[in-house]
Specification:
The chain is an all-alpha fold. It is built from seven helices and no strands. Helix 1 packs antiparallel against helix 4 and helix 5 packs parallel to helix 7.
């Protein structure tokens, strides 16, 4: 996947996510401007925003409306390998923290995330972290019974 194509997919994902989480009285552009005025980048490249998208509850913030749709978009982008820049350690760290924070809250979502990482990002540090988490909690049987994941 070329860098420009990946960026265009990320931009489309950002717009879809913003349409779901923004307050109803704002347009996507107004939401982006409001976030930027607070020195916050509402894109998936921003690890803290990605973490918030993964962990926010519907009742936690009035702007966060449809958790299942947000989670589905995240899992889909992860499977298609354009959600994460695997070389961006900060983004990956926030992403992994989002997985860990969901261990108790949403086990089904965690299972989907771990399986997607296993499929899309083999031979990475993120894969190793998810493998250890899966070995500890048994979210999925993939790699669970093998001591060596290679």
């Amino acid at each position: 996947m070329t860098v420009s194509y990946r960026k265009s997919l990320q931009t489309k994902l950002d717009n879809k996510l913003i349409a779901l989480v923004k307050p109803s009285h704002m347009s996507n552009d107004e939401y982006k401007i409001a976030c930027n005025m607070e020195s916050f980048d509402p894109t998936i490249k921003n690890g803290s925003y990605l973490h918030w998208l993964m962990t926010a509850d519907e009742g936690e913030d009035s702007a966060f409306k449809i958790k299942e749709k947000v989670h589905a978009l995240i899992v889909n982008a992860l499977k298609k390998k354009y959600l994460l820049d695997i070389d961006d350690a900060e983004q990956c760290s926030y992403f992994y923290d989002g997985i860990v924070d969901n261990v108790v809250k949403d086990k089904h979502f965690v299972e989907q995330l771990i399986e997607s990482v296993f499929e899309a990002y083999p031979d990475t540090e993120l894969f190793d972290c998810c493998w250890r988490l899966n070995r500890a909690f048994g979210f999925t049987s993939k790699y669970y019974f093998s001591k060596d994941h290679e």
